[in-house]
Amino acid sequence: MEIRDRPDHDPVAEMLLVDAYMRWALLAAEEVIGRNGLAVVLRQAGLSQLIGNYPPEQLKATSGLTFYHYASLNAGLLNFFGRSARSMALRIGRRTARLAIEQQSALFGTAALIASKVLPFATQVKLGLAAMQAGLRRLSQTVNQDRRLAIEDRGEAWAYIDYTCSMSAGKQADEPIGYIQCGVLQEALHWQTGREFAVEQVACRSMGAPASIWLVSKTPLLPVS
């Protein structure tokens, strides 16, 4: 995997990042790789100002952080992990989702999702993805920005589409780099339904696609016996 800054201007990289959004990612990364390991990642990613200085837990953009900084953290973590990047990033993504749900449950409409458990799995998954996107839109609206997101029916899966992907903002790569988002989606759906769902990234803005896309299965994985 090779990740570098894009040679052209990417307007998504300039979008403001809500403080809590970066805080959740940093806390999750610290749990997985430790405080010292995270300090190394932040230093190598050009984010030394965040070492021991995480943004506050608030839905405001007061730290001067942008989507580019978030993508730089993502790239730094993937470079740090090397061959184990996928599994470690998935763990960070899952923990990030859990922190977001624990700290801002109202933002992501968790009460309604709990009530949806009587519905078919395909419907539950769509509602969960829609609630996540609605929460992200509300986050962006707090800083007067528009987060372009969509959901499409792709037969056996729902396509989670992000035209303003923070994982890849301002970055160029030779393969998809949204593994953390895979973990976020998996954990959010597990929290909602109690089951595991397959998630695969099939398009990435870092590779020139107009949007980053993840396919989320409509049916849960069979339990491991």
UniProtKB/TrEMBL annotation:
<protein>
    <submittedName>
        <fullName>4-vinyl reductase</fullName>
    </submittedName>
</protein>
<dbReference type="InterPro" id="IPR024096">
    <property type="entry name" value="NO_sig/Golgi_transp_ligand-bd"/>
</dbReference>
